[in-house]
Amino acid sequence: MIQSMTGYGKAVANLTNKKITIEVKSLNSKSLDLSTRIAPSYRDKEIEIRQLLSNRIARGKVDFNLWVEKDDLSDAAVIVNEKLIESYYKQINSVAQNLNLPLPADWFQTLLRMPDVLTKPEVEEVTDEEWKEVMKGINEAVDHLVTFRNQEGEALETKFQHNIEQIAQLLKQVEPYDKERIEKVRERITDSLENALDVEYDNNRLEQELIFYIEKLDVNEEKQRLNHHLDYFITTLNGEAGQGKKLGFISQEIGREINTLGSKSNHAEMQKIVVQMKDELEQIKEQVLNVL
Fold first, then answer.
1. Which of 7, 23, 95, 215 could form a disulfide with 65 if both were Cys (CB 3.0 to 4.6 A apart)?
2. Which of 180, 170, 162, 184 lies closest to 272, judged by CA?
3. Across the strands, what pairs with 139?
4. pLDDT of residue 123
5. What domains sit in the chain, N to C, each tagged with a CATH number?
6. 130-154 average pLDDT score
7. Which pLDDT score, from 0 to 100, does residue 126 have?
8. Which of 22, 6, 10 is nearest to 61 (CA)?
9. Are the beta carbons of 237 and 163 closer than 8 angstroms?
10. pLDDT tens digits, residue range 158-190?
């Protein structure tokens, strides 16, 4: 079964005095493009987190977010050093009087910008037990992401099968027009020679030239190769996961045969069918970029 690169997963780890939320999003990308936003307490675990994500998410543009909500916000708040503010206030007043300088218009903003007035509490140490719970949450979020990707993959698989079946059906519709156009080509050439140009010609030489011309218009090989590529696409689709790039290559080969079929057709109805084939193929090409 194929897997989509589009996915979303979320999990929550509830600890004694805080709630840790983990969110993982992914979109299509040629390789693994991983960006992380991790709460300060767990930043030293980033390499471990990246390793886990790399092992479980093969490809895609992945955004990983981990943030913490504390039950007691007093520990997390920025600390204001009141004594230092008072000291700065007295010093600024003294300097202003001695040098005859104007006092600040907004004392509060001025004092808050002074060094070391605002300090953040030290990052608390993460225990092994806490980290185990967080890792469970990360794995759970990735599990949800993988489930989402599988569901998207099922929908893509159904769509691809429909597109391939449509191309195969359209290819069958080419058959009667293919036979008809050869006769029309023969009739058009002989009619032109006999009526429009009014010249005598060697029937044997004409037959040789017609055979040569008709061989150039022959599309049997293109039809056989196109059928083969359609079958190969379905076989790959039903095979193991992680075949997105391979499906992309096969769709390119399908496009090559359809284009050649169109250039050789020399028949209005056949060209209309080729346009319909291209429409189905474009839908495949657009969506196959999202396959893992």
1. 23
2. 170
3. none
4. 57
5. 7-71+127-149 (3.30.230), 79-119 (no CATH), 151-288 (no CATH)
6. 95
7. 82
8. 6
9. no
10. 999 999 999 999 999 988 887 777 677 777 766
CA distances to 55, 171, 211, 237, 266 from 270, in Å: 49, 9, 21, 28, 8
Angle subtended at Cα 170 by Cα 166 and Cα 173, rounded to the nearest 5 degrees? 150
CA angle (204 as vertex; 200, 209 as ends), nearest 5: 90
Q: What's the CA gap between 62 and 59, in Å, rounded?
A: 8
Cβ(208)–Cβ(250) below 8 Å? no
- Tokens standing for 226? 């196109």
63: its two tokens: 């955004």
Q: How many other C-beta atoms can be found within 10 angstroms of the C-beta atom of residue 164?
A: 21
- Residue reference for tokens 């599988």: 150
pTM: predicted TM-score of the whole model, two decimal places:
0.72
Instruction: Tell me the pLDDT tens digit for each residue of 193-213.
Output: 666 555 566 666 666 666 666
